[in-house]
Amino acid sequence: MYRQQTPPPAIPTHRMVQEAPVDAGDFADWLDHTLQGLHSGTMAPVPCGDCRGCCASGYFIPLTPSDSAAAMAIPAPLLSPAPGMPPGYQVLGRTAQGACPMLEHNHCSIYPARPQACRAYDCRVFAAAGMAAGPDSFSRINARVRAWRFSYGSSHARAAHQAVQAAARFMEEKASAFPGGRVPRRPDELALLALKVHAVFLRADLPTLTGTAIAEAVIASSRDFDARGPDAHPRQ
Ligand code: SF4
């Protein structure tokens, strides 16, 4: 489950593309929907506006067998078999500039048939975790990450956000507390894991725990999350 760590990028403060603040919604509602969606595959709609940062940042887009509409809409030469996956799993390549080849004039040319990976992508996970989506090639996403502003309907919601950020920070800074020093390598994986295990960082006894004990609690919390169903995420 954990991979060898390379530190996720901090939110860069140079070469910044500036965006005006964008309403990310109520944090508690967003967290509930996102945790539910990790089980059900139904993610909350993202108010992207004109931003197409995730389409232009060098991601290879995976297609599964259930992405048949996308597979038919995308020219075959742009698709490759996904390495190490069974037949039917494919990868959509990118242009020399690192953009998705289906992005035309800043619009997805296959939007109604776009792959599930595109539908599920929500860069608010990085704002929630207090980290950047990636290095300089992710500048457009990172600009939006900096622009998101969550709102808080209660002190619990604000505490939950602080706990998510503490979880991400702990995994970045204390990888050696985990067996083999292994924590998620990719920023998106680390941010999503921070959402899953944030309750550990709300524990009243947290200041009394060693780093190793916190890491064990993180691993147990992650396993518990993965074992639960989509209706098992009571609001903190
Ligand atoms: S398929 Fe469409 S939504 Fe997905 S990355 Fe390409 S342009 Fe963006």
What distinguishing features does this structure have?
single chain; 236 residues; alpha+beta; 2 domains; 3-stranded antiparallel β-sheet; 8 helices; 37% helix; 9% strand; globular; binds iron/sulfur cluster
Q: Hetero groups bound? A: iron/sulfur cluster
Overall number of strands:
7
Choose one word for the global shape.
Answer: globular
Average pLDDT confidence is 89
Give the helix level as a range of percent. 25-40%
Structural class: alpha+beta
Number of domains: 2
Alpha-carbon distance between the two ends: 25 Å
Q: Major sheet: size, sense and barrel closure?
A: 3 strands, antiparallel
Sequence of secondary-structure elements? EHEHEEEEHHHEHHH
Strand order of the largest sheet: 2-4-3
Q: Beta-strand level of the residues, as a percent range? A: 5-15%
Number of helices: 8
Low-confidence stretches: 1-15
Rg computed from alpha carbons, rounded to a whole number of angstroms: 18 Å
Task: Describe the fold and architecture.
The protein is an alpha+beta fold and 236 residues long. It has two domains: 22-46 and 122-227, no CATH class; 57-120, no CATH class. Helices cover 37% and strands 9% of the residues. Strand 5 and strand 6 (107-108) form a beta hairpin. It starts with 21 loop residues before the first strand and ends in a 9-residue tail after the last helix. Mean pLDDT is 89; it is low at 1-15. Bound molecules: iron/sulfur cluster. Iron/sulfur cluster (SF4) is lined by residues 55, 61, 100, 102-103, 108, 110, 114, 118.
